[in-house]
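As the next step, I wrote out a protein sequence along with its fold in token form, included below for the reader:
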Amino acid sequence: MEPDLEEFQKDKKTHPFQIEEIMKKAAEFIVEPVTEDEIVIMETTRGTLILKLFPQLAPNHCNNFKKLANSGFYDGTRFHRVLPNFMIQGGDILSRDSDRTNDGTGGPGWTVDAEFNETQHKRGILSMARSSDPNSAGSQFFICSADATHLDGQYTAFGEVLDNIYVVDHLVNAMTGFKQVQMMSENLIPEGADPKKWIKLRVPRSRKDIFLEVPDGENASSYKIEMKNKLLSNNPIAGAILNKVRVVHKDELKDQK
């Protein structure tokens, strides 16, 4: 059954971070198996994605996604990780809270065994995130913004974007901590500047040295630690929010047009 959305939204505003309560609702929520006649409507703050699922290839993942989506589990979560020319990742219940450092570590309280299949991880594919354990998928998912065939046979692809792929492009290019530091940096300390007011960092990906000016009133050591952590971050500074995610009969989409 569909949850009382008005009550859910009211509850979310009054008690926005009741993580355990949301997880409990999801665990108790019962859904019918996903069929070929159903689609996903994923409303975000950057636009609405329409996706189809692959119940014949990954039935358990599709049913798990429907259970989480239609129970309201995903509502209010963020796309907490973006990698340009690769993918966007969301579905972490902990991305609802104000602590950005725990994003990417949450789950629903259960896991789903792998259902690897022949689907290629091309642009627009919906796949399930996991840890090093193949059977550790929970609630986090990713959508490929570009072909990523190196993931084939290692992650469970269970759906694909049907419409509005441009939303993925908007999301994947969001400002991250890494991008922010790169934009603030210089390749060399400017001529005539006081070297004591600058810090040097090494970019992990390129192994290139960059320099940043320490803001007035900031402690150089503390600022260096802060900027170093940002260089390691693929988390969007203002990640797009999943306002509402539902698996519905495709006729419901026609009714909205």
